[in-house]
Amino acid sequence: MAEYKKTDKKGSTNPRKYGDTESRNHGSTETRTFNGTLKPLMTEAEKAEAQVLELSYDFSCRIIRLYKYLNEGKLSKADRDIVDALGRQLLRSATSINANMNEAQHPQSDADFLSKATIALKEARESENWLSLLRDNGYLSTVQAESLLSDCSRINKILITITAKVKKRLNS
Questions:
Q1: Exposed, middle or buried: residue 84 (CB in 10 Å: 0-12, 13-18, 19+)?
Q2: Which terminus of the chain is more solvent-facing, meaning fewer CB atoms within 10 Å of its CB: N or C?
Q3: Residue 147, class by beta-carbon neighbours within 10 Å (0-12 exposed, 13-18 middle, 19+ buried)?
């Protein structure tokens, strides 16, 4: 590990290693919690009227909350490793849907828009895979998974329609 020196207010230096728990937590062993206000999630009626950007944002919020839920409580080492690996992959793919659709709001060209929408579609499909793996291995109940899979499927269908229309326009 690389070392760096931290100078405190008194001017003394304390060599620490990057990645050290102590350096990340600045010597604290307390658990940090966030107590901000959570944005309310969309109702089914709101989802029926929403655009893909709004849907993907709401889906991202749900996945962030799911990730936090999955990491609460005590688990065996093996379960912790599995939940951590699958949860991180799901978190990355699900939030990437919204990030790419956000970028697609101001494309440089139709081809740029298509590229971003296609990436978002791939990420949505990947998110479905991670959700299914969590469900099929007992980390999510069927009810929890089906609700999230339904939202992901709705996003998928919209993105398939969008990309097909843009491809048709580009090829005509």
A1: middle
A2: C
A3: middle
Could you tell me which of 79, 97, 93 has the C-alpha nearest to residue 134? 79
pLDDT tens digits, 153-163: 999 999 999 99
Q: Give the pair of three-digit tokens for residue 152.
A: 């992901």
The 3-class secondary structure across the chain, one letter per residue, is CCEEEEECCCCCEEEEECCCHHHHHCCCCCCCCCCCCCCCCCCHHHHHHCCHHHHHHHHHHHHHHHHHHHCCCCCCHHHHHHHHHHHHHHHHHHHHHHHHHHHCCCCCCHHHHHHHHHHHHHHHHHHHHHHHHHHHCCCCCHHHHHHHHHHHHHHHHHHHHHHHHHHHHHHC
Provide the whole-model pTM. Answer: 0.80
DSSP-assigned beta bridge partners for residue 15: 5
